Prior knowledge:
Elements: H1 2-37, H2 41-44, H3 59-66, H4 68-100, H5 107-119, H6 124-133, H7 151-163, H8 166-174, H9 179-190, H10 192-208, H11 211-216, H12 225-235, H13 239-245, H14 252-287
Subcellular location: Cell membrane
Transmembrane segments: 12-31, 78-97, 109-129, 141-161, 182-204, 257-278
Protein name: Putative aldouronate transport system permease protein
Amino acid sequence: MKAKRWQDRIAPGMIYFVLASLALIVVYPFIHVIAVSFSGRGEALRSGFHFIPRDFEWTAYRELLNYPFIWSGYSNTLFRMVVGTVLTLLVTVCAAYPLSRPDFPIKRFLILLLLFTMIFDGGIVPSYLLMKELHLLNSLWVYVLPTAANAFQVLVMLSFFRSIPDALIEAARIDGARDIRILFRIVLPLSIPPLVTIGLWSMVHHINAFMDNLLYVTDQSKFVLQQVIRQILIENKIDPFTTATNLVPPAPESLKMASVIVCTLPVLVVYPFLLKYFEKGTMIGSVKG
């Protein structure tokens, strides 16, 4: 009995040790980024592990937030995040609901076209020429219009709409409701989890995207936050600014780590509130057929 109790204790202990080690491996990069961003110049330039800030100071964040293009990048990212997410949800719902109805004509052909766009892409040069002909170059709308429709998200929404019992739709038709009223009064209130899931996917995409900025926008006042951060991390565009405004400028590593924190802050703030709907919506979209 004693040997059995000892074995019962050692097995959970090993499991907890492995899980704690994996958690430390995952969490440590975030700890390192935060510690370096708040550390003084000498400590930030030191190689090795960083767990807690030493020579604690706010210089990197102060200089970063005083950088003139950070706030314009934030406003442009906020524009594409809000407008792009709303536009994506509108297009996704308007495309998925008709395709989910059994009496909609040529729906199989349209679904095949959706699948075709997931496999084949027009390419960078044709996309650039298209944006040029539409007069979207150096415009904020180039961030939201090309990505308003996403085939995968339409298929996820289509899968959920098909899972809604037809009896609800038929009962509404008997009561005299038309398709628009059925969509907004019955279908959409039942579709909160997949809507939040698709909205979060779109939001994260717009926060992280910078390739469209790199290809279509040259006006620095219209750069998104990711492009501004890219200039700081790769091209060190902020160094001349900090050198001109400080006798002892912060370490480049502190600036880079502070920029990472500033960039990820919107997702860290929004994600916990949407996690419940995100998990439910993802499961619905993956299981229902």
